[in-house]
Amino acid sequence: MSDRHRLSLAPIDTPERLLLGPGPSNAHPTVLEALSRSPIGHLDPLYVALMGEVQELLRYTWQTDNRLTLPMSGTGSAAMEATIANVVEPGDTVLVAVKGYFGLRLQDMAGRYRANVQTIEKPWGEAFSLEEIEAGLKQHKPKVLAIVHAETSTGVCQPMEGIGDLCRQHDCLLLLDTVTSLGAVPLFLDEWKVDLAYSCSQKGLSCPPGLGPFSMGPRAEDKLMARSGKVPNWYLDVSLLNQYWGSDRVYHHTAPVNMNFGMREALRLIAEEGLENVWARHRRNAERLWNGLERLGLALHVPSELRLPTLTTVRIPEDVDGKAFTLHLLNKHGIEVGGGLGALAGKVWRIGLMGYNSREDNVDLLLNLLEEELPAFRSSASAVAAAVA
Amino acid sequence: MSDRHRLSLAPIDTPERLLLGPGPSNAHPTVLEALSRSPIGHLDPLYVALMGEVQELLRYTWQTDNRLTLPMSGTGSAAMEATIANVVEPGDTVLVAVKGYFGLRLQDMAGRYRANVQTIEKPWGEAFSLEEIEAGLKQHKPKVLAIVHAETSTGVCQPMEGIGDLCRQHDCLLLLDTVTSLGAVPLFLDEWKVDLAYSCSQKGLSCPPGLGPFSMGPRAEDKLMARSGKVPNWYLDVSLLNQYWGSDRVYHHTAPVNMNFGMREALRLIAEEGLENVWARHRRNAERLWNGLERLGLALHVPSELRLPTLTTVRIPEDVDGKAFTLHLLNKHGIEVGGGLGALAGKVWRIGLMGYNSREDNVDLLLNLLEEELPAFRSSASAVAAAVA
User: Fold this and answer.
1) Model confidence at B243, in pLDDT bands (50, 70, 90)?
2) Using an 8 Å Cβ cutoff, are A349 and A155 in contact?
3) How many CB atoms lie under 10 A from the CB of residue B20?
4) Which member of A18, A189, A203, A299 lies 3.0 to 4.6 Å from A315 by CB, making a disulfide possible if both were Cys?
């Protein structure tokens, strides 16, 4: 028996943060209360009823009738992997439309499932046109087209009109990343003819990270059922999960019960507010932010017609050390704003207004801080910056 | 916009349960408090420090120096799959020692990673002898031997003395399931020469389900580094995770921040009580339960020398409807006791005394209920049973 790694720690004492970055976003107070209830068993009749409520409210939030709609017991990345793992068979061509970091991740994942991965690409900050997508489908004849609705790395919202019809014409499944749009930005899985979708808990849903909403339509289900072998991922195998989340309630794994308490409350709040009101609120607060930023002379990275209400990319002024300013916001004001990822690293800040945090007071607070404290971080004012920090 | 799935629900109102089944077990009250703190960012310097504390305390609890010790962002089953996914290459022989349900799951998982899966088997309720394991290693020459330390389906604790040495002699990695032993039953990863181990959060650690502790020793790390291709599972790829949990802190996925708040508190409580005291408490309360059950004339399924202090399998008396009695305990007293799984379905009850729930008062409460209310469920007393229910 060794005490080598026996740390003696004080009880946890994390501060309150205002999370205005790419996520996690703050959780709603009643979601945090739900999270801290005593666990019940994952096969308890009361939990089984709660599972049904979570599934039904996910269908509402995604605007889908898909039977196979459930939260994966992992983060959004696990749900992303579940969409690939369940339908991709070795040698299947998967076409990934890459216009940011999360397109690259889909590409990496599909390769691990031995797909023939092909890509079409756009610069980070742009979206695909229908013509570009059609050309890709014609050239590569994929079994699956994977595309990101709301690119968290760039702040672009991909227009979805017509993409589903093209995929059906080319006998291809449409796989959609809705991580930064679910519960925040207009999203219609069935109307858009989306066959596979995933999301996360910590953005539009105002829940902490830890669950990955997943939905699979009938065409994707057919491909899953026609597989020649088992899904090469036990934990994310929807044919097994469906026995637990479906009517049989067969034990698969011990569900993250408390996270699902939180998810149920998060979805309940969205249903209470009404999805159209939720979407309008996100739009209204984003526009308030965009107008304010432009008034301060800051440049937005994405043209207005493609801008995502949940995540705004702001170009870091040439004479500002972007990292120093975000550290100042965090350490002095407890406010988190994100930096750039991948091709946009060091070039943009990422400001999130998601779920519970999409509020006028948060927008005004951040705009005021930018107005009053950013000037000290201009390199011409570096001596002042040192004093403020 | 459709309101078809827009349920109108009351706020969550789950009852307090006493979870004396195979898990989840009740969480410690201060763990639930930690869980409900406001999230902070997964790349926040304070969260990075917290990650280090969780890793270090997991090393203490597992008695290991393994660098690659971290909680997977999923339940115990995800951590189980991580041990297989990272080291198994197609065609590798994996020998699974099956003596219960979770051995079967390891077999299923290893097959999905295209291993040549071989098994040795024992009846559900027994353990393997060193000779049986040596014979298996000689016959199958595996790259990995997978075995369950604490079989939650049978209540057997596998004696571990000598198994690690045999594995080294036969140039084979030792993979150990410690789901129902971590933080409750004597466990020495390094002394036992275990190369890969996994566990869960909701048993000995007194945390809700949702995290899967994982540990990988240097020999397993070598096999991971020598792989010819990428790990065929992105979410559980330890070579990527190590960049996040290791010194680089490179973004991989958004960590389940709040679950890790709870995990830090759960591990802190264990370090405060001291591992030897924790193990002794579990042993003491289990013996109190075993003695009480035998005094009531109930038969224990596992011989005393192999019994697991965390989970006791009790044979359901021939003239009792086991399911009716557990439903009675749940509905009338809010107490959950488990039924049998697989080969033991309908034959045993499974009583768990794990973590925060391993307490004298819980043992006495359950023994009293068995003494006073079980007689009414004897078939000779079915009329009385109907009245009580």
Assistant:
1) confident
2) no
3) 25
4) A299
Contact A233 B233 (CB under 8 A): yes
Whole-angstrom distance, CA of residue B383 vs CA of residue A133? 70
- Within A274-358, residue ranges assigned H as helices are 275-295, 322-333
Query: Does the pLDDT value for residue B251 go beyond 90?
Result: no
- Residues of A (54-73) whose Cβ lies below 8 Å from B: 56-57, 59-60, 63, 65, 73
- CA dihedral sign of residues B115, B116, B117, B118: negative
Q: Which tokens in the block code for residue B376?
A: 């009414």
Q: How far apart are CA B193 and CA B318, in angstroms?
A: 43
Q: Let me know: does A163 contact A148? Beta carbons within 8 Å.
A: no
What is the spatial distance between Cα B40 and Cα B46, in angstroms, rounded to a whole number?
8
How far away is chain A from the Cα of B70, in angstroms, using its nearest Cα? 14
Question: Residue B109 in contact with residue B93, Cβ under 8 Å?
Answer: no
Chain B residue numbers with beta carbons less than 8 Å from the beta carbon of A259 are: 208, 210, 256, 259
> pLDDT tens digits, residue range A92-133?
999 999 999 999 999 999 999 999 999 999 999 999 999 999
Contact residues, B window 208-247, toward A, CB-based 8 Å cutoff? 208-210, 230-236
Q: Which structure tokens are listed for B349?
A: 């009850």
Radius of gyration of chain B (CA): 22
- Backbone φ/ψ region at B109: left (φ over 0), alpha (ψ -120 to 50), beta: alpha
Quick one: tokens of B184? Answer: 């409750």
> Residue A176, Cα to own-chain centre: how many angstroms?
11
d(CA B172, CA B136): 12
Residue A7 and residue B34: Cβ atoms within 8 Å? Answer: no
The ipTM assigned to this model is: 0.96
Residue A212 DSSP code: E
Our CA angle for B113, B115, B116, nearest 5°, is 155
| CB–CB contact B256 A105 (8 Å) | no
Global pTM exceeds 0.80: yes
Answer whether B210 sits within 8 Å of A78, measured CB to CB: no
Q: Establish if A204 touches chain B: CB-CB under 8 angstroms.
A: no
Q: Interior CA angle at A342 toward A339 and A344, to 5°?
A: 55
Q: Does B360 touch chain A (CB under 8 A)?
A: no
What is the distance in angstroms between the CA of the first residue and the CA of the last residue of chain B? 46
Q: Does A263 touch chain B (CB under 8 A)?
A: no
Task: Express each pLDDT in A324-344 by its tens digit.
Answer: 999 999 999 999 999 999 999
According to DSSP, the residues that pair with B108 across neighbouring strands are: none
Diameter over CA atoms, chain A: 67
